[in-house]
Amino acid sequence: MLDDFMVRAALAGVGVAIAAAPLGCFVVWRRMAYLGEATAHASVLGVALALAFSLPFLPAIVAAALAMGLTVTLLRGKGFAMDTLLGVIAHTALAAGLVTVALLADVRLDLNAFLFGDILAVTKTDLTTIWVGGTLILALMIWRWSALLVATLNPDLAYASDIDPKREEMWLTVAMALVVAVAIKVVGVLLIAALLVIPAAGARSLVRTPEAMAFYAAIIGSVAALGGLWGAYLADTPAGPSIVCAAALIFVATALLGPLIRKE
Asked: CB of 129 within 8 A of CB of 76?
């Protein structure tokens, strides 16, 4: 069954959607969508470094994304607004990655696959990476769920409960780096932030509890992945952007119908 490329693509899309759902909820609650985009941009530098030093892609991408998160944490409070700081770091990492790839004369790389994703080219090895990585992300989020919620809702209450908000933010950075690493093959660097934010934002209109929001975000992301693939097959459009467009349509529907559903 896994010899069918569409089946592999569907399993990859659902795997990424499920892994990204709980993390996307915290991205929405903390209003840190731009951090997701910055982490994704940093992954291009990881790809470039992997090519330059003949390293495996996955560890290099995770390392670059973690370095970006650590840099943001260290520079926070140095007189710059967060959006300014993220903008500088994100675009610098993306530009540095593209320049590094261009300087590697003996390397031929299709950057479109990394920038916009190539879910239809997912292999069995990629599928294993996605689901193993997704399982690790879900395990991490379940382990830190209560502490992350308290740190997100009220940092003062977190300190009173012996929870360090900065430590929890670092766990979020780790989870985001893992999501970027497993999702880059599916939707690409430029669309990862959308896959994090849109399903969670759509779920927010339908539910009343954090756990329900994470559950519905996983469902919305999975439906968007399958619907986007189906639409791409019918219309002969790029699969990654089609998945994001499907998620956006679901978001519009939930935004319009959510208040009616919650009243019932």
From this structure: no
pLDDT, averaged per 10 consecutive residues of the chain (264 residues), comes to 77 91 88 77 82 82 82 71 77 82 70 77 87 91 91 85 85 85 79 87 88 93 93 89 92 81 58
The rounded Cα 223 to chain-centroid distance in angstroms is 17
What is the pLDDT at residue 25? Answer: 92
Could you tell me what percentage of the chain is helix, strand and coil, using 3-state DSSP and rounding each to the nearest 5?
80, 0, 20
Collapsing DSSP to helix, strand or coil, 245 comes out as helix
Long-range CB contact pairs, 78-85, < 8 A, 24+: 82/34, 83/34
CB count within 10 Å of CB 224 equals 28
Q: Would you call 80 helix, strand, or coil by DSSP?
A: coil
Question: How many helices and strands (H and E) does the chain possess?
Answer: 11, 0
Concatenating the DSSP letter of every residue in 144-171 gives: HHHHHHHHHH-HHHHHHTT--HHHHHHH
Specify the long-range contacts of residues 208-217, CB closer than 8 Å, at least 24 apart: 208/262, 210/25, 210/29, 210/149, 213/25, 214/21, 214/22, 214/25, 215/21, 217/21, 217/22, 217/24, 217/25
Residue found by looking up tokens 């997704």 in the block: 134
Residue 180 vs residues 13, 78, 177: alpha-carbon distances, Å: 13, 27, 5
pLDDT for position 135: 92
Of 68, 36, 83, whose CA–CA distance to 189 is shortest? 36
